[in-house]
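Module 6 notes. Inverse folding takes a fixed backbone as the condition and produces residue identities as the prediction. Think of it as a translation problem where the source language is geometry and the target language is the twenty amino acids. Below is one complete input and output pair. Work through it position by position during the lab.
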């Protein structure tokens, strides 16, 4: 498990980004990390991987702490950044050289993911487009087989077919001993993968729950009954949509609509 306790971070005295964040991320789950621009999603991921040091609080994976920045910790946690540059070398050599830093790196899995993305191995990284660079980064991140994989806007730069391939690869590589965290604004690209949601607002974690739990308490309706307790409403091109208290069987939740409800509703929404 990855345990985050009372985590706070500020870039300056006037800019508090995260305030008393506490959660436990459990293996076998894919977490969706959501928030408006500037709410601290990338900052949180950088704190988890150890690129930033918290002002207060701590992050632990088992007995390992992020603040130690030890090789043992980095072997367990991988961060796929939103934007990063790849070195000028052959595509296969990149995996062989950098994969040596991760004890569970699987070169065959790296090559398999590249094949799924139709990346030609004979080319060098310098010859690839930005979208192809992203595919190589995703293939390498999955092949490292770390216990915790943090992904910041992983579908940026991918075309529609490649987004479908990404979803298939992620599902294929997920296992009961791994934790995946995806920070994204492109909710529709990956919402079918999530089973847990984390929503940040004004530096605080306002939602930390499974989709099953959410669906057991709320549902989305276009025609609420007079007895329904309306939590949030939103006007769309074909009429109003409502988030209401769920008094029937579990219902499927639209994550994008749910995100709007939790971040824009004037009243507090509790689980």
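Target side of the pair, the amino acids:
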């Amino acid at each position: 498990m990855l345990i985050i306790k009372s985590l706070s971070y500020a870039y300056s005295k006037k800019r508090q980004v995260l305030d008393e964040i506490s959660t436990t991320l459990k293996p076998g789950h894919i977490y969706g990390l959501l928030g408006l621009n500037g709410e601290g999603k990338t900052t949180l991921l950088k704190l988890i991987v150890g690129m930033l040091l918290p002002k207060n609080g701590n992050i632990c994976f088992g007995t390992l702490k992020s603040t130690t920045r030890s090789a043992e910790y980095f072997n367990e946690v991988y961060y796929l950044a939103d934007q990063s540059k790849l070195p000028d070398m052959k595509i296969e050599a990149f995996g062989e050289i950098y994969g040596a830093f991760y004890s569970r790196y699987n070169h065959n899995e790296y090559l398999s993911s590249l094949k799924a993305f139709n990346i030609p191995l004979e080319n060098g990284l310098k010859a690839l487009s930005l979208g192809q660079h992203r595919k190589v980064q995703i293939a390498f991140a999955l092949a490292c087989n770390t216990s915790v994989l943090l992904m910041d806007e992983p579908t940026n730069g991918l075309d529609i077919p490649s987004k479908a391939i990404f979803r298939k690869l992620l599902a294929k590589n997920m296992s009961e001993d791994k934790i995946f965290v995806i920070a994204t604004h492109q909710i529709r690209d990956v919402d079918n993968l999530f089973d847990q949601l984390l929503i940040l607002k004004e530096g605080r974690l306002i939602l930390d729950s499974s989709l099953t739990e959410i669906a057991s308490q709320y549902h989305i309706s276009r025609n609420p009954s007079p007895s329904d307790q309306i939590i949030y409403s939103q006007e769309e091109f074909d009429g109003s949509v409502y988030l209401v208290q769920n008094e029937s069987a579990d219902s499927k939740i639209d994550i994008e609509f749910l995100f709007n409800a939790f971040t824009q509703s004037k009243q507090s929404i509790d689980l």
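Reference fact for the lab report: The chain has two domains: 2-202, 211-264.
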